Amino acid sequence: MLIQIDFASDLPIYRQLRDQIVIGLATGQLEAGEELPSVRRLAADLGINLHTVHKAYQQLRDEGFLVLDRRSGAVMAKNIPDQPEFQNWLSRQLEPLVAEAICRKMSTNDLQALVRTLDQSMRQLKKDGEMQNE
Amino acid sequence: MLIQIDFASDLPIYRQLRDQIVIGLATGQLEAGEELPSVRRLAADLGINLHTVHKAYQQLRDEGFLVLDRRSGAVMAKNIPDQPEFQNWLSRQLEPLVAEAICRKMSTNDLQALVRTLDQSMRQLKKDGEMQNE
Amino acid sequence: MLIQIDFASDLPIYRQLRDQIVIGLATGQLEAGEELPSVRRLAADLGINLHTVHKAYQQLRDEGFLVLDRRSGAVMAKNIPDQPEFQNWLSRQLEPLVAEAICRKMSTNDLQALVRTLDQSMRQLKKDGEMQNE
Amino acid sequence: MLIQIDFASDLPIYRQLRDQIVIGLATGQLEAGEELPSVRRLAADLGINLHTVHKAYQQLRDEGFLVLDRRSGAVMAKNIPDQPEFQNWLSRQLEPLVAEAICRKMSTNDLQALVRTLDQSMRQLKKDGEMQNE
DNA sequence: GTGGTCTAGACCACA
DNA sequence: GTGGTCTAGACCACG
Could you check: is the Cβ of residue B50 within 7 Å of any atom of nucleic acid strand F? Predict the structure, then answer.
């Protein structure tokens, strides 16, 4: 799976890394149970600091996406645990974005379409990957 | 309009302030052309520093939401200028959120419904406010 | 002569006023010896403060463009005195602008053309005005 | 690159700093991709406050001249983005200067020559620097 | 009164 | 080490 870091972004590197791994999982580029590169390896490949990769992995573990084991390294979780507050959290993240879309005169339909497109394209990618594996 | 700052949040204060003003504009709690409190006044009301408010106002000005009129202080812009890259920007913001929703097993319908609810409730609030003014 | 103030500009109002009067003089909309409106009158017309107009007039007087007299009010100077350091001053003003033009990949020719156009259009306006008066 | 701050100038320090960096870029004293001193370092060298340098850097970043790389601090941008309204902006800056030159009886030729000299001397400095590097 | 600039000094997140 | 944020308090230009 290709990971691209933008060093000039305002988003911290560890967050970019974390986000891309989540996106990878959503699009099927990463599967449950799949092994991730070691901290060392990934840091070297991306040309970033060990700490940075470690921090991203830690956060993914805290969120239930990743299982860290001394022997088997980093493995994508098989079962992502329910996060009871997830919808509320998501709602809070979405709120300012939706507000800005309204202010920028985006229509309800355009906004819905944008979310739908993102959602469907990711799910489609995942389905394609799964069919290939069968 | 009520503004609430969460000092424990990881989101910087000036960003919380900026976001809430945008939300206020989307929900009609703030209207185009309306005067905002002066930097000093708002800082005192919220118990934060003058510079923090100043920074939020500056950002809103740069984004075209606010006009800093030399005579009357801060005034919500009448015409919010188009931001040519706005949809792309929004898409990039939405991508990791949608990805996480998929990973957390949220259905397409639930996600759509969540966005719809946010969008509609804000637009409704705005419409209510406008009807009251007539 | 029409004067337009932009209250949202970063340029102070008295400077906008001063600049437009100088432009008016360069384009012949104002002539040497012509009377300007009184401070009171102009302030009322533009909807700005007395002090602001006063400050603009003072600066124009200091620069030799305007003669202020208690009886005859404000009169455009007949002979604008030489300002020995003017070329140096102008050069210093121009330097960052030319530098930015270079950085923005504007060609020497385009820059020259831009200055020429501004210069010629003002001089032409002035000549037109003078012919009309004969 | 030598930077000189005039504490008596009416131009704010952060603007002087910003202007001199742009001039440095135009004259080749600063090259695309070159690292700038850290905010702290430059502030100490110039005897000014950290925040003042920070503000200049932020503005340069907003204008596309500077990239604030998370790893290596401040780096001059490789590709300065087009500013669609740049010519209009420049024209507005130039207008009062040209008008004043006309009022001060500067000839079209002298004005053209002045701009040409500034432009050519900066471009020449840049070319010299580039030849030296080969 | 307003916003804008500058200083001084602190703490934090990031790498 | 870096930049980013926040605070406190001062002065100035503008209107």
Answer: yes
